[in-house]
Predict the structure.
Amino acid sequence: MARGASAKASGGSLPWLGLALIVLILDQFTKMLILGYYRLGDGTVVTSFFNIVRAQNTGAAFSFLAAASGWQRWLFTGIGVAAALLIVWLLRSHAGQKLFSFALAFILGGAVGNVVDRLHHGYVVDFLDFHWHGVHFPAFNLADSAITVGAACLILDELLRVRRSR
């Protein structure tokens, strides 16, 4: 990539970084509401399949390593910081690829949201509780949702890229 193209790409990354910031702000705002209005374990039934609850997760997705002795906080924080740095670099390099950059922005906002929780609280605040016939999916938050949407968009982007190359 030529020097001018690199500068243009980095300026083009600002809207994607702004989108990541919006995801981060919404995530932290909703978590602040949960922490302010609910005690650990409290919940509100919203529908027959959805509750708002206050939960905390010291592990990763699906509470992976949640029962470990505390070292996982720093492992997952480090992974989140490393992922955020890689994503910022990718956004600067590929800002013109809209779906790819959209996906990365959502993943970045979600990853930073959960890193902020780990640094501030020592755990991630979860509050979205979906269930069906008495079986509860692990509680999650907006950051987790953004990461999931971003990952799905990355898969879609790759499928579209493969399709175009045929």
Notes: The mean pLDDT is 87. The longest strand covers residues 124-132. Residues 154 and 160 are 10 Å apart (CA to CA). The two ends are 25 Å apart (CA to CA).
